[in-house]
Amino acid sequence: MAADRDAADRDARRVPVRRLTVLHDAECSLCGFLRDWLGRQPQLVPLEFVPAGSAQAAARFPGLDHRATLDEITVVGDSGQVYRGTAAWIVTLWALREYRPLSHRLSTPAGAKLARGAVLAAAKWRGGQGRSVGWGGGVYRRGDGWSYDPRLGWSYHRPTCADGTCSTG
Fold first, then answer.
1. According to a count of CB atoms within 10 Å of the terminal CB, is the N or C end of the chain lower?
2. What is the pLDDT of residues 94-104, one digit of tens each?
3. How far apart are CA 45 and CA 84, in angstroms?
4. Which tens digits make up the pLDDT trace of 27-58?
5. How far is the C-alpha of 119 from the C-alpha of 114, rounded, in Å?
6. What's the CA gap between 104 and 88, in Å, rounded?
7. 3-state class (DSSP) for residue 45
8. Whether residue 165 has pLDDT greater than 70
9. Measured between alpha carbons, how far is residue 34 from residues 24, 28, 79, 87, 164 in Å?
10. CB-CB contact of 19 with 48 (8 Å)
């Protein structure tokens, strides 16, 4: 298996992991929620969050396929270990004090099937959200003319040239 070969190349089974960098899609609401949730959890191994596909990610990890990191969760260990997809979720849970036992269960063959199902469900949800503007799951952004009032919810006011936010589209 490629992941086993990659781990053997870096001797990852004997090299301790002291820090993990989680590359996340900063434009994805689910990814943002999970990033915030992970950041609030007690950590046995510190987690650092870097937007996938960003200049910061490219500078820190020049050997990664950064387009792929936007499609699938990628976690990088401080000694160069790279985890993608299901393995990335499992190692992220492994870093958390309360979820380390769960990560061990998910790393078994039976547990890996459950973890893979969760990763596929999240990917399917993300795929359905799209990155389109307008109705259909897009994100409401203040810069696009949206504002939020707790009593009324979201409302849209088309930007005008008078306020310096002329639309070019």
1. C
2. 999 998 998 99
3. 18
4. 877 788 888 989 999 999 999 999 999 999 99
5. 9
6. 13
7. coil
8. no
9. 9, 10, 24, 16, 35
10. yes
For residue 148, count CB atoms less than 10 angstroms from its CB and return exposed for 0-12, middle for 13-18, buried for 19 or more.
exposed
Please identify which residue in the block is written with the tokens 């992941």.
3
Pull the structure tokens for residue 107: 């790393």
Flag whether the pTM goes above 0.85.
no
**Helices 109-129 and 85-94 sit at what angle, rounded to 10 degrees?**
110
What's the token pair of residue 103?
């990560």
Alpha helix ranges (H) inside the chain:
2-9, 29-40, 55-60, 66-71, 85-94, 100-106, 109-129
Whether 115 and 86 have beta carbons less than 8 Å apart is answered as: yes
Residue where the block lists tokens 């950041």 = 39
Paired with 84 in beta bridges are 74
The identity of residue 73, as a single letter, is I
Cα–Cα distance measured from residue 81 to residue 160, given in angstroms and rounded to the nearest whole number:
49
Computed over every residue of the chain, the mean pLDDT equals 77
Tokens in use for 75? Answer: 């976690």
